[in-house]
Amino acid sequence: MSRIIAGAAGGTTLTNVPGQATRPTTDRVKEALFSRLDAYNVLAGAHVLDLFAGSGSLGVEAASRGAATVDLVESADRAAAACRANAEAMNQVLGWTCVRVHRSKVETYLNRVPEDALWDVVLMDPPYPLEDAPLVTILSTLVPHLAEGAVVVLERSSRSGEPDWPDGIERFAHKKYGETRLWYLEPV
Question: How far, in Å, CA of 76 to CA of 21, rounded?
Fold first, then answer.
């Protein structure tokens, strides 16, 4: 059972996605990720985008820790339902609508957002089998929507090599946690 680790809703149990199709981020990786984001001082008041949201656990963690808005993007029915349940629980704790769910493919969502939409933090946890070519396309589409000083965190299998980053974004850090590697990116 996953949970919110810290912040306004710390300790709250989250709805998981039923079945084996979704791979949740472990509490260990989530704690390390958010400790780093807290050290970068990018969460308070941030506009957060959670792509391939799964249950939405990363996005609602960001909301619990002080994000101003969180957009969860998920295309699978069961996962989107879990996102809605977790968003509703978080919004109830906060007393306002901070977390919104968008049932959409990531590519479709990014191609239809307004040109002036900007995010300060982007969390991406695509399926591990996603090839580099579509990943690079998604990152390329995302670049114009990154605020100055934005941080993008990409979760991939530790067995995957480093992707070829598209123009406009570069890696500034990475860390391996067992089967998982987190890549930290920033706009250039």
Answer: 10
Instruction: Let me know: does 47 contact 41? Beta carbons within 8 Å.
Output: no
Structure tokens at 129: 């089998």
Which structure tokens are listed for 118?
């900007």
Which of 45, 50, 61 has the alpha carbon at shortest distance from 149?
A: 45
Is 0.90 surpassed by the pTM of this model? Answer: yes
What separation, in Å, do the N-terminal and C-terminal C-alpha atoms of the chain show?
38
User: What are the tens digits of pLDDT across the range 6-59?
Assistant: 888 888 888 888 766 566 778 889 999 999 999 999 999 999 999 999 999 999
pLDDT in tens, 119-162: 999 999 998 888 999 999 999 999 999 999 999 999 999 998 99
Amino acid at 18: P
- Distances in Å between the Cα of 153 and the Cα atoms of 14, 22, 32, 169 are 21, 18, 12, 12
